Predict the 3D structure of the following.
Amino acid sequence: MSDESQPFMFDRDAETMPRGNLTALQLRRLKKSLAHAYLKVPHVRRKFEAAGVAPDTLGSLADIAHFPFTEKADLRDTYPFGLFAVPREEVLRLHASSGTTGKPTVVGYTRADLDLWSDLMARTLACAGARPGDIVHNAYGYGLFTGGLGAHYGAERLRCTVVPMSGGGTERQVMLMRDFGAAVLCATPSYALNIAEVAAGMGVDIAGLPLRYGAFGAEPWSEPMRRDLEARLGIKAVDIYGLSEILGPGVAAECHVAQSGLHGWEDHFLFEIVDPETLTPLPMGDVGELVITTLTKEALPMVRYRTRDITRLSDEPCACGRTHVRIMRVTGRNDDMLIIRGVNVYPSQIEAALVGFAGLGPHYQIVLTRDGPLDAMTVEVERTGDAPGDAAACARLAGNVQHHLKSVIGVTCGVVVKAPGKVPRSQGKAVRVKDERAN
Ligand code: DLL
């Protein structure tokens, strides 16, 4: 059988489960998970009682719409361990991500949760193109961030050889990618771009190396950015998605076959899209906020977690044969949305407009300032090494970029053209927006 008709899968039975079986499994697991959270977490019990629901009021998957949402604020209010559903001694690992205030959002994993995470990350990496025996160069940050250890244990579970690089030390990353012959690069897309650029500066032809796939995620990116990374690195660049509150990476992954939307692992998560204003569930295909309920997590079961990520679901059959619903590319968050002179702007829209613009490198930063009562936005871009650097040429380029951005995002913003290398480089998740507005 050819590769295309039978793509490799880590868990074929689960990944190709017929819809009827998947729905029945989800309902069984959802009932159990709701009961677990309700019985073990006083905060969850109080919220259920206030909403007039209990685990046994759920008769079908659609009934989930009657249950209360969980938000970042619930984690903040119960900091650090108040949402854990098992005794703290059974939590073998803690991770944390940024919270909305000074305190981080803390998440925990039991032995079974860590096993599940490894399995789902092995599934994710295989879906993205990794194979047992491959060398996986892992440039996701190790530490409290879930990216590094999540990809690490998943790659080991898949029986790959892991190079645990973490972020930073980019020249050394390039050297070891070349010397070891990495087949798969795990990194944020912005850091992958940084690696490609440093390699070019070192005279290393990365596209000529054995590298075949990139498993890129943890931040929004765009189709033009994908094409750029694929050309520079000579790979297929594949989108992977996850968030600490739900698991870390390993919630959803594109397949390298179709590269068109991320299969959300429905045997372990229930996905909904809701209207971000009214919070009512939207039909399949409509754009809204992604809400996720965990079905099998022990330490931190999550009921209807509001991800703030804006996307849509697709249940169209996929060329790879997986039956799990696809989460289309996340276009932004409804809480990092910028409102500039009344116009809603997502940083990812700006990125898509800048990547590939003649004379510009792919690095950019958005600087927000206050102009009287109004917010003003300046986009700092970088000219390529071969674009002329005299003041007149830079002003012309800035004018052209400004015109182009206006036509794409509908708002006029300042544009500053910087010399090559002058826009700060990513070492992990890119800081795309610098907010200099005094409150
Ligand atoms: O970023 C987990 C992860 C690590 C995913 C490595 C993929 C690879 P957090 O730090 O909790 O977890 O951040 C989660 O990052 O709600 C999205 O807004 C954003 N995000 C993650 N993956 C993608 C993606 C990890 N593929 C938050 N596209 C999420 C767009 C993404 N945004």
Summary: The two ends are 62 Å apart (CA to CA).
